[in-house]
Amino acid sequence: xxxxxxxxxxxxEQAAVATAFAAENxxxxxxxxxxxxxPAEAGYSAQASVPSFxxxxxxxxxxxxxxxxxxxxxxxxxxxxxxVERVVEVGRPTKTIVEYAEENDIDQIVMGSHGRSxxxxxxxxxxAEIVVRRATVxxxxxx
Length: 143
Known about the structure:
The chain has helices at about 15-25, 55-80, 95-105, 120-125, 125-135, and strands at about 5-10, 30-35, 85-90, 110, 140. By secondary structure, the chain is of the alpha/beta class. Helix 1 (about 15-25) packs parallel to helix 2 and helix 3 (about 95-105) runs parallel beside helix 5. Belongs to the universal stress protein A family.
């Protein structure tokens, strides 16, 4: 049985680098390109009983994810990866990534780092750092 490698993608250059790294280092694995649509970006709050994002906003996010998937799947296939899965989930990125890995037989997570430091890291947090701390599978963070 081949390995399943989860590659969270967010449209950043770091996500593209992580995809290329995963493809080059795990050419026989199934790469699972994983995008999380974060409702907080559309003004959703945990206190609200109904999300405030519109259907148009959600459709736009799905379209953007599909376009990213097409580009990154091409990169993976050029490196020799035969099986690429594409998954879109809605939720808080850190929690959604960790839960998906636990529930879907993921062997490893490979993700990009945004390389924040100082105050911006404290204020914004680091998705990669939180995933490293909470994941039950190995996590490789690529710069």
